[in-house]
Each structure stands twice: as structure tokens, then as C-alpha cells.
Design brief:
There is one protein chain. The chain is α+β, with helices and mostly antiparallel strands and 301 residues long. The chain has one domain: Protocatechuate 3,4-Dioxygenase, subunit A, CATH 2.60.130.10. Helix content is 12%, strand content 22%. The longest helix is centred in the N-terminal third of the chain and has 12 residues. The protein is globular. It starts with 7 loop residues before the first strand and ends with a strand.
Amino acid sequence: MSRIPEPVQTPEGPMYEGRMLDRVDEEVVDQGAAFDIRTLVTRRGVLSLAGLGVGAVVLAACTPATSAPATGGGDAATSGADSTSGMENTAAGEIPQETAGPYPGDGSNGPDILERSGIVRADITTSIDGSATADGIPLKLELLVRDLANGGVPLAGVAVYAWHCTARGEYSMYSSGLEDVTYLRGVQVSDAEGRVAFSSIFPGCYAGRWPHVHFEVYPDVEAITDSANAIVTSQLALPEDACAAVYADPRYEGSTRNLAQISLSSDNVFGEDSAALQLATVMGDEGSGYTATLVVGVQGV
């Protein structure tokens, strides 16, 4: 991924790809989500789809085509759901509200990535500016958002912010040496099936926590610049068999030991019900990568 080009100076002010910068004293990557959406829409030439609304347009610009989850003969966990394999994808209940933890990057505890241009993206393996790439076994993360207030129908147009740790259990924007790194964080907008998908790496296991992915659901992409607008903050748990297989990889040094010292029932987030509504379906293997899918039931927007 190449670095973002510099804006062009014009008599009217700085411009990027034909659009005036919203914040003339700041860089392109700091223009905010609204500017980012306009850039994506123009770049993909879909302005003629005005009747689809912001959510559909952003999805068309940002989400890759659906691909089947990796199987490769690997075992699949059987909790959660997978829309690509025809499994049940109806929410069994409302996703539990959980802590965003100490490293949210949403402005509620220090840095705020949600105001930066480039945060609306499907591939979160690299930093927004392309300067760093997270190393690890590939993971495709799929969340299927369901509106429980309306019988569990797919909830289109909501924005989902997802983030997680590196293979070594560190967090971009917070851990020592990663303060200026922004990988493993991104926003997607749900399609007509209520689906968002991210390309990432399998997160490691650090001491005291079961392997997990954080996420926040917002009413729409315009709402992401204020963490108080989130309608739900929760976490996805990864099944033990997939974790054990991944952590044999030397890039996940320490994760096998940390996993042996924790369980879903003893985890301080998932322990109440052993992640009954938060344990993802995971399919794939270490060679071809994994797909993790979870149904997220929410009470409307």
C-alpha cells in the first residue's frame, strides 16, 4: 500500500482528488470520515447511485466481494454463525454490552482514530498511511448485525468499528513503539444483509484475557466521530481449537502459555456465560487462513 499523495495547492486552497480539504491546516489523513467517504465514492465512480443512501454507497466503495471461508480440511468451531456457508444466521439474543478496554482508539481514552480519513476500510492489516503492516495468520472477520426490535431482520447502514491486538498481544496507538501505528483498526458499513467484513490477522493471546476482538456498532458512519454515539460496545471470542492451532506459529510467541492460563469461564469479560452469544464460528486452517463469523443482535438504532 502506497503512501497517501500530498494535496494540490490551488488559488481556492488545498485540494485532494478534486475536493477541497475540510480542514485546511491538517493533512489528508486527518480530514475525517466525511471527507474520506466523498473520496471513496468519487474514486469508484458511484455518485449516480444517490438513491442508495450513505451506507450502501460506502459499502460499495469499501467492501470486497464475498469469498467463501477457508476450509482446507481444517476443523471448524460450531458456535456463532456463518452467512457464507448457509449456517443459521439469526441472532439468539442481544449481544452483551462489554467494556471497550483501555485501548479503544475511539477518543474515549486517549487517541481517536475515528476522526481520521482512511478509517473506513475493509483491510485493516496495514496502518492507514501504509507505513506498517501487522504480521500473523490471515483472519477474515465477518459480523452479521440483526435488529431484534424488528424481529431479527438484517440491519443495513450501521457502522461497525473493529479493533484487536497484534500476534504478540500489543495494541496499535498505545503499546510501546506502536504509538504512531494504526493497523488492526477499521470501520465498515453493513450491507443489505447486515454484514460487515474485515481482512485482518488472527489476534494473539496476552496474559489475563481470552483471545478476542473488540467492536462498536454506530447508527451510521456519520456518528463514528463521537464514541458516545455507539449503540453497543462488545467483544467477539475466538474458539480454543483454532487459537491452539494458530499459536503454534512462532510469530505468536507467548500466546500458547497465556492461553493455558485462562478459560472462557474465568475470563473477566466472557466469564459470566462463557461467551454464549459472543463465541464466533471459525473455519479454515493455518495454511490458508481463517474466517470468523458472529451474529450480533442489537435493539435497533
